[in-house]
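User: I'm writing a short report section on ligand binding and want a predicted complex to refer to. Could you take this sequence and glutamine and write out the structure as tokens? A short remark afterwards would be nice.
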Amino acid sequence: MAGKICIGVVAVQGAFVEHESMFARLGAATRRVRTSEDLLGLHAITIPGGETTTLRRIAGDSGLIDGLRTARQAGVPMLGTCAGLISLADAISDGSDPIIGGLDITVRRNGYGRQIASFEAEVSVTAIGEDALVEAVFIRAPILERVGDDVVVHALYQGDPVAVSSGECLGVTFHPELTSDHRFHQWLYERAVGYANAHRTRSQEDVSVRA
Ligand code: GLN
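Assistant: Sure. The structure tokens for the complex follow:
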């Protein structure tokens, strides 16, 4: 019988409690991730918003960023919201080094400027669950200046991509965990199930090869 799916929620800052509630509603267990040891055995990982400078400092010093990068390279599905998306970007327009990387995009931090730092807007989301208009909450959000050819754009706001995916990585510039829209968390949960199944199959094959 399949074990319960376990999704890691990076808990160094930001709305990790709200992310946990979203997954609880979907029936997935969560684990707070503060060190790279906390990553062991997870089927997917969420990186909440906050400040990328804080994430870089705290999670960089503890080795967590290295652990997250290794997990991503191993194909563990990931969802990043706002600063979490910035951490998944392959390029940051201020020239600072990528944090985790994995999404072939270039992001500009605080892309809407300081005067209109936070706002809500209706955006149309496609190919993430059922297509729908969602009320998106933007908080000092980044703007995507470039998306690579293999990146799928799921939503636009004022012509700029605000939800994108590539393979097992999904990045959103707004905060779905602050609304009742759980389609992004559902997306990750489904990928977590796929990852768990692939892993189980692979380890069973390993056993039979060895036997
Ligand atoms: N402005 C933040 C940054 O650049 C992101 C804000 C957020 O995650 N809500 O790191």
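A remark for your report: The chain is about 30% helix and 30% strand. The chain has a mean pLDDT of 92.
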